[in-house]
């Protein structure tokens, strides 16, 4: 794999990020330690250095497995990203949320499970709609100054909150968010309304989670493999099936797997994007790794865009309408000038 800069930083990360939410066998699903090690071996051998986890993943088992895998000799090669926010202690009312107390407590616990002295990228996992954003940014900046965290990032948060936070951080001289993690795929394009334009403005890298829509875009549901998905899931509706069929058709034309097409689409959208590829089987990762060799042409991108397009709502669609009108007037004035 090639390496990219993460947001407006000098941090070099692989063009795919390994998602480890499935490392551990709690709740009767996921990869055991041996399989998790095999997956991380394959990822590292392919040049992958960017690993994503969270304090809540498999109740901490994901972080523990990663900590056992990464030796002191390898620590500086890997870029470890973890998250805080979600509940991991039911006896403490402050063991969840974005507040400073939970942030500090969660980071200390993650450091122990990861068996490391520092976290490369710490995400706020999900916005709690309670904690002031200045409390979050000041706490993250303190952790960075202490050397326990290198970079701050944010996930699953409204665009206006992130924008306010980065603007405040710039004003106060605090560390800014360099990455934004959101659900983004051909079946989930709503971040294009506000979140992705905001990320582009601030130079943030987008790290899409579920870029394969939980496997839907691999075509497995078309083949009748419903697995653990709920029947009412929007990944099983007629629109999702129609989009997936187009992905499969393009994959067949190119002689690649549908997952390659879906992953590469997220990387060719005109902004810095590093999709998170989760795996509980070695074969899943091996297939996903091959997507970096694919380049979709303009025709493929057009077909995928047209079949999955969403209304941007106001003001996005209004801007498009106004752009058409302005261009029309421009063409009219060009004709007038030429005639004169």
UniProtKB/TrEMBL annotation:
Pfam short name (any one): Aldo_ket_red
Q: Which UniProt keywords apply?
A: Oxidoreductase
Q: Does the keyword Oxidoreductase apply?
A: yes
Oxidoreductase keyword on record: yes
Give all residue intervals belonging to the NADP-dependent oxidoreductase domain: 15-307
User: What are the record's GO terms for cellular component?
Assistant: cytosol
Superkingdom in the source lineage = Bacteria
Q: Which Gene3D superfamilies did the record assign?
A: NADP-dependent oxidoreductase domain (3.20.20.100)
MF-aspect GO terms: oxidoreductase activity
- Name this polypeptide is given: Aldo/keto reductase
């Amino acid at each position: 794999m090639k390496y990219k800069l993460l947001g407006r930083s000098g941090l070099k990360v692989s063009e795919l990020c390994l998602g480890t939410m499935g490392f551990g066998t709690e709740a009767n699903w996921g990869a055991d330690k041996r399989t998790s090690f095999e997956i991380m071996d394959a990822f590292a051998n392919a040049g992958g250095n960017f690993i994503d986890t969270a304090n809540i993943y498999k109740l901490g088992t994901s972080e523990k497995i990663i900590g056992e895998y990464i030796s002191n000799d390898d620590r500086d090669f890997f870029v470890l990203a973890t998250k805080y926010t979600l509940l991991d202690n039911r006896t403490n009312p402050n063991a969840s949320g974005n507040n400073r107390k939970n942030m500090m407590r969660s980071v200390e616990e993650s450091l122990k499970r990861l068996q490391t002295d520092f976290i490369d990228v710490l995400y706020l996992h999900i916005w709690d709609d309670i904690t002031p954003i200045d409390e979050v940014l000041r706490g993250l900046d303190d952790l960075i100054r202490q050397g326990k965290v290198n970079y701050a990032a944010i996930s699953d948060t409204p665009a206006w909150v992130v924008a306010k936070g980065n603007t405040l951080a710039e004003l106060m001289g605090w560390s800014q968010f360099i990455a934004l993690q959101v659900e983004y795929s051909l079946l989930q394009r709503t971040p294009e309304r506000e979140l992705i334009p905001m990320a582009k403005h601030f130079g943030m890298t987008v790290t899409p989670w579920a870029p394969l829509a939980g496997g839907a875009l691999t075509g497995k549901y078309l083949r009748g493999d419903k697995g653990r998905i709920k029947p009412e899931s929007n990944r099983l509706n007629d629109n999702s099936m129609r989009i997936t069929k187009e992905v499969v058709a393009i994959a067949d034309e190119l002689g690649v797997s549908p997952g390659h097409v879906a992953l590469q689409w997220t990387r060719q959208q005109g902004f810095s994007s590093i999709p998170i590829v989760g795996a509980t089987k070695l074969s899943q990762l091996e297939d996903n790794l091959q997507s970096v060799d694919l380049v979709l042409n303009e025709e493929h991108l057009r077909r995928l865009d047209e079949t999955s397009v969403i209304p941007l709502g106001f003001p996005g669609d209004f801007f498009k309408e106004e752009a058409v009108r302005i261009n029309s007037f421009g063409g009219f004035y060009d004709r007038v000038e030429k005639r004169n």
